[in-house]
Amino acid sequence: MTEEREILTYEMFGTAMRELAQEIIDDYQPDCVLSIARGGLLIGGALGYALGIKNVSVINVEFYTDIGEHLEEPMMLPPTPKAVDLSGMRVLVADDVADTGKTLELVRDFLGDQVVEVRTAVIYHKPNSVFKPEYVWRETDKWINFPWSTLPPVEPSK
After folding, report:
1. pLDDT one-digit tens code per residue, 70-112
2. Is 140 helix (H, G, I), strand (E, B) or coil?
3. Looking at residue 83, what DSSP letter applies?
4. Which Pfam family is one of this chain's hits (predicted)?
5. What is the CATH number of the domain that holds 107?
6. In total, how many domains does the chain have?
7. Cα dihedral sign for 143, 131, 125, 121?
8. What are the residues whose beta carbons fall under 8 Å from the beta carbon of 104, sequence distance 6 or more?
9. What are 76's strand-pairing partners?
10. Is residue 155 part of a domain?
11. What's this model's pTM, rounded to 2 decimal places?
12. Environment class of residue 63 by beta-carbon count within 10 Å: exposed (0-12), middle (13-18) or buried (19+)?
């Protein structure tokens, strides 16, 4: 028996980014997009283009170790951006999904009072998440197949 999954295609990803960007820009004008690697890399880059923001940065957080398996708590991996580098900015934190919400919560707390304002954007939000992002494209309780992570990594040709 296979578990029903949410399938995101590259075409749907493009639509999601335009719709999410419209929702954001109608409500908020960020100075910087901070992408949570790895899942948020494509989201942050796409939102940066859609919002006309060239200041796109990355923070690397490890939480999921495999499908349905994760560490007890998310952990920032070096190098971490210095919050002072973002001081005085309105920051939009971008990720692929708020599953447990712990990763987004960790990054928001890390930025703390060092920035003018922090808001968060995701493609998907799950109902059991402890964190509710300000901008969400879709709600789901299913496991999500993202087009960039569905296939296994490529291996060297023989």
Report:
1. 657 777 766 666 665 888 999 999 999 999 999 999 999 989 8
2. coil
3. G
4. Pribosyltran
5. 3.40.50.2020
6. 1
7. negative
8. 36, 93, 95, 98, 120, 122, 131, 133
9. 61
10. no
11. 0.87
12. middle
Q: Quick one: which of 18, 24, 48 has its CA closest to 34?
A: 48
Burial status of residue 3 (CB atoms within 10 A of its CB: 0-12, 13-18, 19 or more): exposed
> What distance in Å separates the CA atoms of residue 42 and residue 30, rounded to the nearest whole number?
18
Q: Domain limits at 56?
A: 5-66+89-141
Amino acid at site 31 = D
Q: Are 35 and 49 in contact (CB under 8 A)?
A: no
Q: What is the DSSP letter of 78?
A: S
Contacts of 8 (CB under 8 A, 6+ apart): 16, 123, 144, 145, 146, 147
* Distances 54 to 11, 46, 47, 94, 96 between C-alpha atoms, Å: 23, 11, 10, 14, 20
Look at residue 158 and tell me if it is in a domain.
no
Token pair 């999904």 is at which residue?
97
In a domain, 146, yes or no: no
Phi, psi of 111 (to 5 degrees): -70, -35
Could you tell me the mean pLDDT of each successive run of 10 residues in the chain, 158 residues long?
Answer: 84 98 98 93 97 93 63 69 79 96 92 92 97 98 93 91
The pair of three-digit structure tokens given for residue 110, joined into one six-digit string: 């890390």
